Structures are given as structure tokens and as C-alpha cells.
Amino acid sequence: MKLRTYTEADVRGRRVLVRADLNVPLAGGAVGDTTRIEESLPNLVALHNFGARVAVISHLGRPKARDAAFTMKPVAAALERLLTQKLRGFAGVHYLTEAVGPEVARALAADWRREIVLLENSRFYPGETKNDPEFARELAQPFEAFVNDAFGTAHRAHATTVGVTQHLKSFAGPLMVKEVEALSRVVERPARPFIVVTGGKKVSDKLPLLRSLCGRAETVLVGGAMVFTLARALGLATGKSLVEEEQIDACREVIADYHESTTRLVLPEDVVVTTDLESAAGMANRTLAEIGEAEMGVDIGEATQDAFAQYLAEAATVFWNGPLGVFERPPFDRGTLAVAKAIAENRSAFSVVGGGESVEAVKKLGFAQAISHLSTGGGASLEFVAGQELPGLAVLAAG
Q1: Enclosing domain of residue 259
Q2: Residue 18 pLDDT more than 90?
Q3: Angle of the 226-233 helix axis to the 248-259 helix axis, nearest 10
Q4: How many CB atoms lie within 10 A of CB 161?
Q5: Residue 182 domain-assigned?
Q6: Known catalytic membership, residue 202
Q7: How far apart are CA 116 and CA 214, in angstroms?
């Protein structure tokens, strides 16, 4: 997929609206992790150096209405600090408490060539997630061009990803291009063997991916709570493990499809179970057939960790999305960390890791530099690899 990109001639002296993904975690009223802000910097620096007048918009969290806990003010402070390190003579980030209306018009009318404007949280406006045409028109009105560099939101047909493109000449930013190039390599021309690791809570979220990989990948390794809906579809007891009852029939169909294909669908040989998520005291290792009525599966077991590591050691292309256990509660993070380590140790493979917990596991072990591409979009990367059209990309397609 080829995207439209901007040149200096497209943006010099123009008012440019930038959609960035600044949806960062907050802690104590400040930004807790600046990774997503850092990913947005190359685009902002390039536009600033090209002489564009830049205003940035992003969502933050999932507020249902205007909420002081989700203003962009702390993001503005972190963005200003990071940009000051990159730009000479930078006058700072001008944070606005609105995204549309007179306050924006006044700011854009001023001489703010040396500043970057940060607009208020896009999700403070109901028209954002509804892709409301009037809101999109009002948002676009003060600008002359639009650059979308927020791959993590490309699977959403929102006003700031799709709607504004109806009113402005629109381009993909460098992060968007990098994401598409890396994921296209996985989708269109994976070196063989192509191994996929998928986890997470809900199998319903991963069924499109599982269906699309059947016949495309050599092996699909499955972990996380989604294992237990698949296990129930095989007639196995799952105790108190998370099971999506309404997805059991769909899982039976997926399992049957894999049986008839050349792709191996690999479930865990063993899992870690517990009767209490708050304590490691009741941990035990079980095969899927041995899970007790009072037990819940919370991680892949040691034998499975070794088996998955062996598959990954032989891979030429790897795509991983989703934790293999209850990653946020150690020691139930061991399976996820083991998979991260195995992927990082295969230096000859082209590896793509997407999804918050998966990326966090890689970084936690200090393996980020060993991964070919860390995707900034969990859901977006999942849908891209599953072959689904991403609305935010479709409107930026070249030609």
C-alpha cells in the first residue's frame, strides 16, 4: 500500500493540522510514559523545519464528555520539553483549551511560526467518534493541509482520521509510512517460516486474525485467556478460566479450518493456574485437560514456553500481538516475558511486535533494539495483518 506523503512545497508557510497519537498514560497529573510523544517528534520536527505552521490534535483516554482528568495540558508540557531538545529557537507549545471555535481561530491568526499549537482532547467532542461532518468541517476550517501520523487510530473512522480529509489536502506522516511498510512486509512478503504469536483476553478480538492466517502462516501460537474458549470448543474443562461462551461455535469452525490447512494452530501444552489472582501461593502447572473446577488459567506453562521458544527460534518472520497471561500481575507475566525473550534472541528473523503489553514486555527486558519493528498500534496492526481495510489509511492512499 502506497500512501501520499508531503514535501516541503506542500507545507511551507501553510497552516497544517496534524493528527498525532499522544494517548499516553498519566500518573499524578503528569505523563507517565513519553514513548508515543517521542514517536510523533520526527514528523513535527520536519514540518517545523519546512516552515509549516503546525497545530496538533490527539485523543487522550476515553472520556465520555469534557473531563479535567483528560485535558491535554500535561501532554503539552511533555511535548514542549522534548521538542525544545530537538528544535533551535523553539518558542514552545501553545496549549489551547478548545479544538474548534474562536479560541483556535485567534491562536492561528497570531504569528506563531516558532510555536507548535496543541489543541484540546478530540474526544471531548461527540462529533469526533461519530465522524460528524459538521464537526470535521469546523475542525478543518482554519487549516490548509492535514497530516495524519497516528497509525494507532487508523482503524477508526473518526473526524480526526477520516472526516477532515474531505476538506483538506491530506498526507501520511513518517510514522504512518513506517508502520505500513513494516506491516506490509509481514502481510505481503513474509520470509518463511512465518510464525505468529497471539494472546489477550478475548478470542472474539482475534477471530478475524486467526481466520486470515489460516493457510498464510506456517504456525500460529496461541496464549492468553483466549486459549480457554478454544479449549472449550475442543471439549476440555476450563474451570473458572475466562470463556466467551457465545464464541465456542466460531472457535470450532476455526479449529476445523486449521485441521484442513497447512497452518498449525498450536495451543499450550500446559498452563499456569491459580485460585486467587491476588496471590502466587496457589499457583500450579496443569495440562489443559487437568484444570480443576475452582482453578483459572492465568499464563502459559513452562513446557509451553520452551515449545513456543523452539518455534520462534526457527522463524524467519514473526508477528506478535497480545500477552500470553495476566501480564499486569507478576508472576503471571512469565510466559509473556519468555516469548519476548525468544523473539528478541532470533536476530535473523524480521519481527514485528504490536499491542501495549507485548511492547511493554519487550521493553521491560531491554530487548527493544532487537525487534525489527515495535508497532504503535495494537488494534490497528491487528486489523492490518488480518487484511481488513483501515479507514484512516484508505483516505491517504496514493493514486
Answers
A1: 190-385
A2: yes
A3: 80
A4: 25
A5: no
A6: yes
A7: 46
Contact 274, 282 (CB under 8 A): yes
Catalytic residue among 36, 53, 206, 232: 36
Q: Which of 244, 194, 234, 189 is nearest to 214 (CA)?
A: 194
SS3 322: coil
Residues 135, 209 share a domain: no
> Mind giving me the DSSP string for 39-91?
HHHHHHHHHHHTT-EEEEE---S--SS--GGG-SHHHHHHHHHHHHTT-TT--
CATH number (domain holding residue 315): 3.40.50.1260
Do 369 and 236 have their domain in common?
yes
260-309 pLDDT, tens digit per residue, is 999 999 999 999 999 988 888 889 999 998 999 999 999 999 999 999 99
- 16 with 86, same domain: the answer is yes
Q: Catalytic one among 137, 202, 252, 329?
A: 202
Same domain, 345 and 377: yes
Residue 301 catalytic?
A: no
* C-beta of residue 226 within 8 angstroms of C-beta of residue 200: yes
Please tell me which residue in 73, 130, 356, 364 is annotated as part of the active site. Answer: 356
127 is catalytic: no
* Total structural domains within the chain: 2
Tell me the sheet residues that pair with 318. Answer: 195, 351
Q: pTM of the prediction?
A: 0.91
Q: Is 364 a catalytic residue?
A: no
In a domain, residue 166? The reply is yes
Helix 203-213 / helix 248-259 crossing angle, nearest 10 deg: 20
Q: Which helix (H) or strand (E) holds 294?
A: none
Q: Are residues 155 and 201 in the same domain?
A: no
